[in-house]
């Protein structure tokens, strides 16, 4: 981390393929009410969940390169797919930037929720790419050898949510039942929502699995993890660090700002964001994918990793 | 068209956001068995259906620029969304290339199928972007003033098909019923499948709307339209124009070749393509989006429109 240049007033970057990461932004807003957030939604190229590791890593690399001149004190990859397939490569590419993801915090919470049971059964629902990466398996098994894991890609849940369907829609109910039925016959103890869209269906999912199953929201756990990292680094922004202003969207609540960047259709993003955040946002800034590609020098990608910030 | 350089042996380019356009490739293979096809699936940036006109036009522009050195005798935009939002701009940008789409042939067939009825009721199901573009409305009303149009975006059908679900899956059946129910109460005469993925659900859709409704497959109509255009231009490739070779994937059938290019995950494309085509393909060539972006000179995009082919 470039701690010499960073202060509690530096912003936190939150990035995702689209809207899903806003559930992380919402949890961050609750956990760190005085911090400024820069949110990047790669809406021209979403979804990431069905794409390859190389392609997703390239996209995330471009986004961080674009936002690096804003001197973020921390970057959160608020997308399970991108965390699963790109986090190690991104940390290696940006050694001076503090970067975290959503999987380790979710896996840690799942193991804690499993309690003292010797061979707890932990279910994970996520995109195809996240499941294929085995990132949750590695992270959970490192902490608890004997956990029995049940993994299932649930690729329809993102389009169902993006279409604006609520959890009382028969199609949503049927999809959740179809996906979770095999889990229920096998004595599930814990279920991890391994995609940042899924918290929007948390109540329906909890009703479907029943009260004996603990449901882990990786977005909330990720926000707690970021708060802990900033506190350790002495970079937490407290109420005393800024005047109590009215802003950041949540009316009447003193808070840091939230500025959004998207690669496509800012009005659509603005319209749908409220459902994820619980409050309205200012108009997002449009960043074309041409701009993102132009940042990279293919011949020598190292050049762009240390811009003069 | 650069007719001086073109011959019946020149290939036909078929482009789409991903797999859907393969239904057009399949229909072209049936209609033009001796022609060589170059198929481009923009799998790193799919789907197009929820994205803006400017973004989609930029993507299509890159793809045609990339394939132009192959000297195609015709380019088919085998995607309703891209046809709806980008066809006029693409024709203007590539004045020497023959380009067609899927909407005009589908609209023409819908009007013919409506027969002599004075105010036929024509339903159209398509992606959000296609519906928003009003391209089908314009095209049908130009031919038949008094047609009553019912339009409905059906954004879940693409992910349901891409997930590999068949038309006996309860979720697919429920989605199709939910989407088509409002149409059935209003005396539908004709239903246009306004997305090149939808022919894979044609039987289920026909069962749902009943035998009194004519269902129009825009992929098949598009292939007929291309054959007619090539015949008019004297560029149709007949059996006599090439030796009867075994190839192009369809085992034992003399045919032209089919070469595929994708921007992400060639193995996944290869695996899923069979369902759309009815035969196996050779391994697709990977083209990175970095390569596509590098083709364009932002300062003077006209430069790339006339490469030395």
Please tell me about this protein's structure.
The structure is a homodimer of 309-residue chains. Chain A has twelve helices and ten strands. By secondary structure, chain A is of the alpha/beta class. Chain A has two domains: 12-101 and 220-305, Rossmann fold (3-Layer(aba) Sandwich), CATH 3.40.50; 103-218, Rossmann fold, CATH 3.40.50.1860. Chain A has a six-stranded parallel sheet, sandwiched between helices. A four-stranded parallel sheet of chain A has the order 6-5-7-8, with helices on both faces. In chain A, strand 1, helix 1 (22-31) and strand 2 (37-41) form a beta-alpha-beta unit. The two termini of chain A are 13 Å apart.
Provide a brief overview of the structure.
The structure is a homodimer of 309-residue chains. Chain A has helices at residues 22-31, 53-67, 80-93, 103-113, 128-133, 135-143, 157-162, 170-184, 202-209, 218-232, 266-277, 289-294; strands at residues 12-16, 37-41, 74-77, 99-100, 121-126, 148-153, 190-193, 214-217, 258-262, 285-286.
Q: What sort of overall outline of chain A do the alpha carbons produce when their principal axes are compared?
A: globular
Order of helices and strands of chain A: EHEHEHEHEHHEHHEHEHEHEH
- The CATH topology of the largest domain in chain A is given as Rossmann fold
Oligomer: homodimer
The number of distinct structural domains of chain A comes to 2
Strand content bin of chain A: 5-15%
Rg of chain A is 19 Å
Largest sheet of chain A: 6 strands, parallel
Number of helices of chain A: 12
């Amino acid at each position: 981390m470039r701690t010499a240049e960073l202060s509690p007033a530096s912003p936190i970057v939150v990035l995702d393929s689209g809207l899903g990461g806003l559930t992380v932004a919402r949890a961050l807003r609750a956990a760190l009410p005085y911090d400024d957030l820069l949110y990047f939604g790669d809406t021209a190229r979403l979804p990431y969940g069905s794409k390859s590791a190389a392609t997703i890593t390239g996209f995330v690399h471009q986004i961080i390169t674009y936002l690096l001149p804003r001197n973020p004190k921390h970057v959160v990859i608020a997308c399970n797919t991108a965390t699963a397939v790109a986090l190690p490569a991104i940390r290696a590419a940006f050694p001076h930037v503090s970067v975290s993801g959503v999987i380790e915090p979710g896996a840690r919470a799942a193991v804690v929720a499993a309690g003292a049971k010797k061979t707890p059964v932990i279910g994970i629902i996520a995109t195809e790419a996240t499941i294929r990466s085995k990132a949750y398996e590695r992270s959970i098994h490192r902490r608890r050898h004997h956990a029995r894991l049940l993994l299932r890609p649930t690729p329809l849940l993102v389009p169902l949510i993006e279409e604006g369907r609520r959890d009382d829609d028969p199609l949503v109910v049927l999809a959740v039942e179809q996906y979770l039925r095999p889990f229920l016959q096998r004595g599930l103890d814990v279920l991890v929502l391994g995609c940042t869209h899924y918290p929007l269906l948390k109540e329906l999912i909890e009703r479907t699995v029943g009260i004996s199953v603990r449901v882990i929201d990786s977005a909330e756990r990720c926000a707690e993890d970021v708060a802990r990292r900033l506190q350790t680094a002495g970079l937490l922004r407290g109420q005393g660090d800024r005047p109590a202003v009215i802003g950041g969207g949540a009316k009447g609540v003193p808070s840091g700002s939230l500025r959004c960047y998207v690669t496509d259709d800012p009005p659509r993003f603005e319209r749908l964001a409220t459902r994820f955040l619980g409050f309205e946002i200012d108009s997002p800034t449009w960043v074309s994918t041409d701009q993102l590609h132009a940042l990279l020098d293919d011949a020598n990608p190292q050049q762009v990793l240390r811009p003069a910030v």
